[in-house]
Design brief:
With about 290 residues, this protein is α/β, with parallel strands linked by helices. Helices cover about 35% and strands about 20% of the residues.
């Protein structure tokens, strides 16, 4: 079982440090800020809630529940919206949201939202007048089969980083996510990895950039054509032409982290593409 310890972020909110993955569950610059700026705002759920009667969100790697909470807060604060919000959240470790409740971490949200997160952690299902939240526990590569195709207006992809948790950044898993996305929906993640972006493009998605929040590199937004997205920079585009862009693969959707990483490393070693280090070297020289 993962050892979780409290970690204070710069906006005053608290997240967990994972001993297993050697990473925090959110950016050290601000857990609450990250949920709002990297996931809720770019997916335009506030705008969609004013024109749709139902809004569907797939929250991949629910964790402490902050991304779902930020979405609920966003919709709840819209005076003219009558949209019903449906969230399906995938989480491998039920201890994480339960410990977040026990540690009082959800109290940064309004009491009604904190109560929804509390019930979800206890019963894995919450239904109110305007909000439903279903928490599916297990390996997301399997539980995603319970999500309808072309269902999600927004997908929040928030696993640990690709080197730590490659299972949820593979071509095959991102294809499953794309299958769940509505034709006009958005998939967003904090990662700007060339490997992740390549996987998204192989799944038939366009990619764009989200302005940096609390760190130097941007995040990624993806959608089907003809949805217009903010473009990635020329610098980022160059990395898509290097070995760094070779994606993670997991054809059977059962591979371990080590197996997936080793497979990618072998593919990189045999690739005719230049290493990303050569790109960084040329940029320094120029």
């Amino acid at each position: 079982m993962d050892q979780l310890s409290l970690f204070a972020t710069e906006d005053g909110s608290i997240t967990f440090w994972s001993e297993t993955y050697q990473e925090t569950f959110h950016s050290s610059h601000g857990a609450k800020q990250e949920a709002e700026a990297k996931f809720v705002i770019p997916t335009q759920i506030a705008q969609k809630a004013t024109t749709q009667t139902q809004l569907n969100i797939l929250d991949v790697c629910y964790g402490l529940g902050y991304n779902s909470a930020a979405a609920i807060a966003c919709i709840s604060e819209l005076p003219q919206s009558t949209a019903k919000l449906h969230i399906i959240a995938l989480e491998n470790n039920l201890e994480v949201p339960q410990k977040a409740i026990a540690s009082g971490l959800v109290n940064i949200w309004q009491p009604a939202i904190a109560q929804i997160l509390t019930v979800a952690a206890a019963e894995q299902n919450v239904i109110t007048e305007n909000i439903s939240l279903q928490l599916l526990i297990g390996d997301a590569r399997q539980t995603i089969s319970q999500v309808p195709t072309k269902w999600a207006d927004a997908i929040f992809l928030d696993p640990f980083s690709p080197p730590r948790c490659p299972q949820l950044w593979t071509v095959e898993f991102i294809q499953l996510l794309a299958n769940c996305l509505k034709p006009d929906g958005y998939l967003v993640t904090y990662s700007a990895s060339a490997a992740v972006r390549t996987a998204m493009m192989q799944a038939g998605l366009q990619i764009g950039a989200i302005a940096p929040v609390g760190r130097k590199s941007p995040s990624t937004i993806a959608a089907f054509a003809p949805t217009v997205l903010p473009p990635i920079s020329e610098h980022e585009a160059e990395f898509l032409k290097t070995r760094a862009a070779i994606p993670y693969r997991d054809q059977a959707l059962t591979g371990t982290a080590a197996e997936i990483i080793n497979c990618r490393q072998a593919e990189q070693n045999n690739s005719p593409l230049p290493p990303s280090s050569s790109l960084r070297k040329s940029q320094k020289q120029s």
